[in-house]
Amino acid sequence: MPMKVMCFLCSLMLIPCILFAQANVSESEVAIPMINIHAGFHLPGGDMLDRFGPSSSLGIGFQMKKPSNFYWGFDIMAISGSDVKEDNILDIITADSIDIIDSDGHTASIRFWERGVQTQIFVGNIFSLFGPNPNSGVFIQGGLGFLYHQIRIEDIGNNSPQINNEMLKGYDRLCMGVSTSQFIGYRHFSDNQKINFFLGIEFIQAYTEDVRLYDYNTQSNYKDKRIDLLTGIKFGWTFPLYKKSDNKYYYY
């Protein structure tokens, strides 16, 4: 049953690529289905500021722009960073020492990373105030989705039984919840169909809570609800899914 659902959803994504009529992107507003690949850099705020520093992101998504320049879409974005401020999460293991001793009696090499994922659906509109054609210009976008983040604890050598895969769940501070986002920037479609991109400022608010329920380090239950904020810049490269003939776009 899940395979049938996946095939059905994939076929729906292909419909905009099949039902096209002809128009010239340089002369009129046209419908353009597209794939976006994007990267970003974000600064934390709210409760996330106490846990992490700056982070980077990499994502992919689908977007459908209508002839009216209104658009909708969905995407998924991976979040990663190396600045983890809560580096005391293993204090109960180290006790009076600052080191963890592995099964061979050596000092273990432990690293902490920020890891997370955000997925969302979004809507927006392009305002052709400037740009090479009516399909380009300033855009404003809003989204609703889901976000999770955690501290990834990496044991170099994987030789410390105190933090095996099952035990890590009590230390990783996994949080998840509903997210909202706002994005303002510039969207560009070139007349020659070769240079298509967007660039802008993104704001993300995530209303999360700890899902592990019990913290091994403090030996207490998690109770806090969090407001995690991210603010940053994002650049994306766009691959329009139009059929091409005589240097023209096609739309339905």
What can you tell me about this protein's structure?
The protein has a single domain, classed as Porin (Beta Barrel), CATH 2.40.160.20. The protein is mainly β and 252 residues long. The protein is 10% helix and 53% strand. It is elongated, with a radius of gyration of 23 Å. The strands form 3 sheets. An 8-stranded antiparallel beta barrel has the order 2-3-4-5-6-7-8-11. It is built from 3 helices and 12 strands, in the order αββββαββαββββββ.
Give a summary of the structure in a few sentences:
The protein has one domain (2-251): Porin, CATH 2.40.160.20. Helix content is 10%, strand content 53%.
Please trace the helix and strand order, writing H or E for each element: HEEEEHEEHEEEEEE
The largest β sheet comes out as: 8 strands, antiparallel, barrel
Number of E strands:
12
Low-confidence stretches: 8-23, 245-252
Overall spatial form: elongated
CATH fold annotation: Porin
Distance between the termini: 31 Å
- Report the average pLDDT across residues: 81
Radius of gyration, taken over Cα atoms and rounded to an integer in Å: 23 Å
Helix content: under 10%
Q: What's the CATH first level? A: Mainly Beta
Structural class: mainly beta
Taken as a percent bin, the fraction of beta residues is: over 45%
| CATH architecture identity | Beta Barrel
Enumerate how many helices there are, as a single number. Answer: 3
Spatial strand sequence of the major β-sheet = 2-3-4-5-6-7-8-11
Count up the domains.
Answer: 1
